[in-house]
């Protein structure tokens, strides 16, 4: 808690902001006005540590980490900032004392959804952990006017509408129009005095907006700097006067489109010019800012690596390599070889996906058109690499008239990392086998983590309270201390308290589900949750097929001793991803039929609340009994939702994929419902061209489910609606839904058996929390600091 803060002083600050910042009278203030007033009052308490951290970093000339990411999936800020400052309970008391509903006020804040999914949420967790650990850092990103679209269901189908988080004032950002840089596109390259000079054909101005990110207990705060695009020239007055109004506003149009909207597809690479412009806009502005800050107090650019570490969050900012070379050579007169040496010491690259369709590569035609100077530099990097590391056949960046961003990022970095042990192994052996052989020490692993402040302490107050009661305070920033819960797991009293905390969250969720979906569910049922982006490799289809099989089994024998279940789904599909949208439709159709079936009643319910986002995750995860992590082995790089469920005491049903492998190692095999093929078995299985048919023929339940789908049992209005789905399972089952179905079905039966035995179940659940310390993003960031950034905490 900030020194001297009391309920009275905070109330006075809220009222002062209401009067003088918002200019509203308490008698006439809306919920939104109160939220603004409280946000400004809380923000004031962040500014003090923020100044202090920034000043210390300058005074001590510390090395800074620069995290470059096209996405930051932040969610709401108010309650998270308040709890980190130790002001949350005080804020609640103040607000309720003023006659305002605190929960409603918190929920009035729109989510900052500047990201698609895992990659963007990881960036947000990393920012919070860097602040908690006192690692001097800047996050650089784009200030999208519209974040990830809002999802609605119409007749069970996903419909997208634009998201408008900036329609109301964002109280957390500070505009810094004085921090502005020119970013160019297109044009041509000229040779002047023997030097190549890029003459862009278009320019825009990048203007900074800073948001402070405060760590646990307010001991340190870093900056998230998001760029917006402004026209370099306001408009062409001469053209305007001539009556050419459209042409006069061209610069404005270009600027407005750049940060207009987040690309909502994280599965297929599309090769769109605007996307390349966004990536370069972020990267160029960031690098210019970084060099300006460095040159403010240093002369020798050769020593840049002593003070600067730049991390590329996937290949999206991989243009940082050539852009840094351009700035060093063309602008600062450094020679090419020296520039290469500096760039490669400064840059690090994190890979987040092995899916071939998501790997960025640009046609040399488009790339050379938008960034002609960078195209030249990339060719020079390629020949430098070929010269320095001769190989019999070509390994490099430009191949088949494409610029391959993964290879570019690899070559320009001193370290490349995967995001789980299994994934890093695959990055080395299957994604970059030749480059890894040439540079054997380059690929390292940094297993992902999540911040326990948001994902346990804030979102699960009942469990956080029990943990503090049991092992004392301080675990929030030292999550390995959760191991101290282990001896208590054997005590029936502790397990009862653990179950009671879970039940409180489930009761709260039942009310919310009723409001959102109209479906009444019982908190006595097992809450089985799969929430994540909808993608074939994540196999939501397998889950819904198994749900149908389970429903069918209940109908065959309604009087048997069924463990009641609620199947909860959440997630968005990319707008153009037809197959994923069909799966969404199927889940909704299935829910409609099952929920209306009087034979089944409370034994099985299916709910799919629309518009899954960070705030919804904060409600669903603490109330989950079972975590679904069922991707085809080798496809999920890590997963981070899996870690959040574990922390909140939900055992996993899952495959040996991504970080599931490490979760199982930590929690113990007996506390994890494992099923399915391994990465190697998947590869083996695919060699059989009839793998799906063989699997279907061997499983009566799967045959029955596919038969029901084909007959239109879930789409009576359109009996042939799911013929495509059925056909794909039979004939194009790349992700092996059929081949893993029987094992999954059996594992679900094992879950039921465990749930029937409360002592066994709550032991498992509590061990999941007690052994989740490894998955704190603090551990992850310490790993990056030591093994990639060579940087130290300032605390
Ligand atoms: C690719 C593209 C292609 C161009 C259009 C926009 C766009 C946006 C994102 C991506 C790549 C997304 C990769 C990703 O989100 N990977 C996830 O990263 C998580 C954090 O490391 C990890 O836990 C998930 O397993 C992994 O799928």
Automatic annotation (TrEMBL):
Q: Which SUPFAM superfamilies match?
A: UDP-Glycosyltransferase/glycogen phosphorylase (SSF53756)
Question: Which PANTHER family does the protein's record reference?
Answer: GLYCOGEN PHOSPHORYLASE, GLYCOGEN PHOSPHORYLASE, LIVER FORM
**Pfam families found in the cross-reference section:** Phosphorylase (PF00343)
Please describe what this protein does. Answer: Allosteric enzyme that catalyzes the rate-limiting step in glycogen catabolism, the phosphorolytic cleavage of glycogen to produce glucose-1-phosphate, and plays a central role in maintaining cellular and organismal glucose homeostasis.
UniProt superkingdom: Bacteria
Q: Which UniProt keywords apply?
A: Carbohydrate metabolism, Glycosyltransferase, Pyridoxal phosphate, Transferase
The EC number(s) attached to this protein equal 2.4.1.1
> Record's InterPro entries?
Glycg_phsphrylas, Glyco_trans_35, Pyridoxal_P_attach_site
What is the name of the protein in this document?
Alpha-1,4 glucan phosphorylase
């Amino acid at each position: 808690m900030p020194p001297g803060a009391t309920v009275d002083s905070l109330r006075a600050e809220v009222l002062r902001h209401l009067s003088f910042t918002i200019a509203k009278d308490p008698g006439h203030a809306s919920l939104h006005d109160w939220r603004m007033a409280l946000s400004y009052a809380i923000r004031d308490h962040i500014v003090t540590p923020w100044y202090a951290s920034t000043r210390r970093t300058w005074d001590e000339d510390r090395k800074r980490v620069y995290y470059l990411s096209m996405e930051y999936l932040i969610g709401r800020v108010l309650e998270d900032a308040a709890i980190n400052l130790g002001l949350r309970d005080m804020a609640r008391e103040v607000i309720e004392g003023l006659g305002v509903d605190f929960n409603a006020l918190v929920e009035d804040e729109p989510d900052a959804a500047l990201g698609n999914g895992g990659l963007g949420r990881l960036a947000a967790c990393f920012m919070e952990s860097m602040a908690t650990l006192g690692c001097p850092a800047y996050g650089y990103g784009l200030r999208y006017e519209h974040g990830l679209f809002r999802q609605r269901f119409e007749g069970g189908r996903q419909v997208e509408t634009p998201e408008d988080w900036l329609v109301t004032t964002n109280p957390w950002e500070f505009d810094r129009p004085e921090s502005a840089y020119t970013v160019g596109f297109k044009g041509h390259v000229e040779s002047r005095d023997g030097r190549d000079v890029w003459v862009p054909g278009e320019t825009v101005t990048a203007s900074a907006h800073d948001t402070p990110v405060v760590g646990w207990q307010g001991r340190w705060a870093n900056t998230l700097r998001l760029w917006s695009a402004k026209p370099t020239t306001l408009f062409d007055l001469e053209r305007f006067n001539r009556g050419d109004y459209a042409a006069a506003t061209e610069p404005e149009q270009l600027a407005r489109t750049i940060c207009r909207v987040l690309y909502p597809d994280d599965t297929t690479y599309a090769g769109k010019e605007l996307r390349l412009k966004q990536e370069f806009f972020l990267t160029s502005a960031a690098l210019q800012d970084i060099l300006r800050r460095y040159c403010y107090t240093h002369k020798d650019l050769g020593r840049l690596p002593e003070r600067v570490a730049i991390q590329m969050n996937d290949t999206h900012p991989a243009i940082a390599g050539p852009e840094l070379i351009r700035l060093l050579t063309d602008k600062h007169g450094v020679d090419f070889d020296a520039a290469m040496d500096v760039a490669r010491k400064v840059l690090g690259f994190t890979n987040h996906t092995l899916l071939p369709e998501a790997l960025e590569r640009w046609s040399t035609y488009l790339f050379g058109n938008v960034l002609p100077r960078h195209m030249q530099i990339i060719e020079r990097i390629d020949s430098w690499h070929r010269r320095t590391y001769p190989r019999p056949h070509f390994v490099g960046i430009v191949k088949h008239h494409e610029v391959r961003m993964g290879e570019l990022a690899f070559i320009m970095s001193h370290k490349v990392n995967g995001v789980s042990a299994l994934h890093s192994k695959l990055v080395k052996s299957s994604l970059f086998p030749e480059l890894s052989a040439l540079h054997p020490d380059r690929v390292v692993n940094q297993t992902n983590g999540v911040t326990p402040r948001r994902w346990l302490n804030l979102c699960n107050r009942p469990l956080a309270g029990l943990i503090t009661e049991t092992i004392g305070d301080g675990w929030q920033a030292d999550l390995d201390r959760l191991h101290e819960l282990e001896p208590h797991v054997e005590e029936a009293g502790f397990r009862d308290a653990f179950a009671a905390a879970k039940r409180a969250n489930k009761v709260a969720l039942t009310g919310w589900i009723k409001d959102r979906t109209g479906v009444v569910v019982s908190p006595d049922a097992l809450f089985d949750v799969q929430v994540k982006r909808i993608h074939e490799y994540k196999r939501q289809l397998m889950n819904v097929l198994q749900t149908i099989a389970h429903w069918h089994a209940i109908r065959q024998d309604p009087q048997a001793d069924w463990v009641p279940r609620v199947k909860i789904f959440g997630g968005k599909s990319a707008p153009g991803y037809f197959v994923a949208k069909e799966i969404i439709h199927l889940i909704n159709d299935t829910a409609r039929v099952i929920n209306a079936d009087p034979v089944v009643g409370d034994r099985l319910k299916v709910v799919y609340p629309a518009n899954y986002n960070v705030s919804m995750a904060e409600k669903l995860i603490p109330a989950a009994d079972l975590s679904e992590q069922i991707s085809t082995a080798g496809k999920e790089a890590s997963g981070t939702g899996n870690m959040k469920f574990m922390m909140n005491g939900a055992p996993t049903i899952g495959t040996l994929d991504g970080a599931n492998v490490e979760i199982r190692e930590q929690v113990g095999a007996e506390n994890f419902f494992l099923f399915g093929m391994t990465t190697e078995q998947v590869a083996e299985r695919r060699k059989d061209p009839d793998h799906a048919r063989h699997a279907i023929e061997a499983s009566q339940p799967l045959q029955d489910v596919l038969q029901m789908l084909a007959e239109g049992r879930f789409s009576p209005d359109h009996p042939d609606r799911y013929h495509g789905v059925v056909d794909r399972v039979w004939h194009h089952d790349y992700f092996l839904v059929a081949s893993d179905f029987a094992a999954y079905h059996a594992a679900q039966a094992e879950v039921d058996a465990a749930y029937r035995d409360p002592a066994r179940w709550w032991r498992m659940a509590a061990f999941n929390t007690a052994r989740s310390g490894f998955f704190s993003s603090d551990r992850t960031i310490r790993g990056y600091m030591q093994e990639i950034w060579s940087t130290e905490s300032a605390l």
